[in-house]
């Protein structure tokens, strides 16, 4: 597999850290705008407060990024506590486990899935009162104190739209704030400059300009980029694996089509992003265990429009077009624009074949993976019908086993071990056996024979086809 590893090593990252963060926030905003704007306000205030505090040991970049993502646990459905991420009446500060567990999830997600590492431990006991003693030997307590203070101020301003902050900010949450940081905030907010910026939403552009200045090491930036895949897990685990697999197939096919490193990098970036619009698609449609109705299929197809909206302004135009067109077919039968082959470039054609190969060879909520013969038969029919480029699909047909082996190798390289996050989060939730007894209901597993799943799956159930 040295040749495919060489292709991977030759890639240059197209998206900057700022672009990745902006795109990820628009993805989260597609789930719940109120939570996203709360995080934006918190991050802006945390940035201004950190700049005012005279402590060169504070990492302003990491504090801002941590504040932007500190509410990640609120974007995923929580069946144990009956939480829906689309709720509008959000409690951010209760010390009940249904709330604290969300920050524990955020803590370990950011620790294991991002370059923040141990800085993310600031969120582990996020809703607990400030601890002066802890501050002196755990730097994370400082990060927590900054972000918590700013989060409480953000929530206060949201719920008291016509009011300014109380003269004594400690009245918002007595005993929970670091008095040193309260004094620093008052200095930063002299003449209510920060409050006015937040009230008028002027802070968004200012915060965006700051984000455009931040940098990460290459490996850390690549780690951030994977968030654009793994945030899809908040809606559908199948979509995450499909995005990774499509990226793997795209690299294998791009190499066989003799793309140069610059073209391969464009193809790979497009493949990573190709389905991010599904973050705005209802989960009931993404996970539906059967054939979608015509109405629901139309909603599913709209994900390409969501992708274009999310990427606009934060990704190169060619990447956006590649993503937008990955369901087009050479004979004009694709969507959303029904473009014909003369309008589709080589990278877009490769991405389409990679996407379909992944769809056929993946397991979904409504199907098991197709057999090799069935996958090749479908791709042959689509090629003969003039939908796929035969110069590309021939590699799937003639070299299928090798391409699948390369996909399996690349998958191990590109995927992130999410088990640490789930394990630590589960340990926190289930550390109370009485709670477990009250909350868990045993359900008989309904195993379905894979042959039944295979027989149920029809071609028109695959939105990729």
From TrEMBL:
InterPro entries: HD/PDEase_dom, HD_GYP_dom, HDIG_dom
PROSITE patterns in alphabetical order: HD_GYP
Residue ranges with Acidic residues bias: 449-465
SMART domains from the UniProt entry: HDc
UniProt-listed Pfam families: HD_5 (PF13487)
Region (Disordered) location: 446-465
Stretches assigned to the HD-GYP domain: 217-412
NCBIfam families for this protein: HDIG
Name of protein: HDIG domain-containing protein
